[in-house]
Input
Amino acid sequence: MKIDKSQISGKQFMFMVAFFLQSSALLTSFLAGITKNEAWIPVVIDIVLCIPLIFLYRTLMVMFPEKNFLQVLDEVYGPVVGKIIGISYVWFFITLAAVNLIDIGDFAKITFTTETPRMVPTLICVLVTVWAVRHGIKVISRYSKLFTIIEFIIVGVSIVLLFNQMDFTNLLPVFTQPAIKYVQSVHIIATIPCGELVIFLMVTPCMKKLTPRESTKYWFGGVAMGMIVLLVVLLRDIAVLGKALHLFTLPGLVALRLVNLGEALSRMEIIFAVALAMLLFFKITVLCYVSTIAVAQLFGTTQYKRLAVIVGILIMAYAPTLYPSSVEHGISAQTIVPFIWTPFQILLPLLTYILAKIRKLPKAITPAVKKQEV
Amino acid sequence: MVWAVIGGFALIALMDFLPLIRRKKWRAVAAFVCTFCAALTLEVLMVLNIEIPSVMSAWESFIRWLGMGYAA
Output
């Protein structure tokens, strides 16, 4: 059963992955609070450590090109256990979308709409997201390439404008923190931006036929673009803010506030704010789409467009129940969330891959079975 | 406020639920009803200022009980 009939190319997929990862540039404050001005070290370590994880996702995609991840679970674990794990994944996708919706609400409250109730920007975001979801993955992916390039340009311009304020000695000294702090930071990056890419296993059936080599190219191309932007943004913020980095909720915004090249080029943070709002909106759209597809898959229906609005509203209603304040949200993301996400992002996909290999799945369809299916 | 929420949900039902019934897409109807009930319950509870227990707090207790989790 193919839920969304629209198809995207490998390149569109690559830019979606890159854009999705870039949206984590907002999370630099999570890391800054732990490893302070050494926050760039865990990102470099993670670029290497995430290679096997991305390869695992790519392999699952290549092994089951016609199935989304919930269908893969059904095939590997059987219909009962597969459905139970599928329900937990639906919760995971909806929670992920809700957490990011909290982020955009907080972000809007700090930057654009300080006097407006948080519900207003959140509701607007959900409505636009739902509209995009109803139009399918093709519409969602269409603007990812353009926005990825815009994001590259914004990051590049910001570096040029801030170059006179950068002090690269802020990146040193290295490895002065206790080892557990690096482990914690590496775990956060591995689960929060990198592991979240597991959601792209839900769009597998919408991909145009790719060879394993092309799949590798597009997965790793997207991850490389996303992680490089994340690293560059972090290096820029550390070089500009130095030891004060961990004091700010949005270090990137504060760094850009320091741009001052005459009277015309000052208060540039609004560009960064627009870029981040764009990134977060895209991330929520992809997560909302995946949640809707997952709900439709769980009930065995293809009518996902009719479910988009209600799933969006559920995400919006569920978000405020997660954390009483943004401070607790931040602390939870640093201390607990990596442990909750690990089974969904690393352990279960790995177990699924091992079981699929042991059970020699996917089974080759014999001509007789193929005829019966038609 | 409760009536505004109920009105909003009625509008969503009118837009998306009735076409599903008309086309006899029963699986989609079941999916819609489950999601609709969960969303409506959460929204009404929130509007009535009734405290909803946080799933993440439950997870936190569980993770701490397992002896995992990083120091804040």
Remarks:
- Chain B has a mean pLDDT of 92.
- Helices of chain B lie at 2-22, 26-47, 55-65.
- The interface with chain A takes residues 9, 12, 15-17, 19-20, 25, 27-28, 30-32, 34-36, 38-39, 42-43, 46, 52-56, 59-60, 63, 68-72 of chain B (CB under 8 Å).
- Chain B has one domain: 2-65.
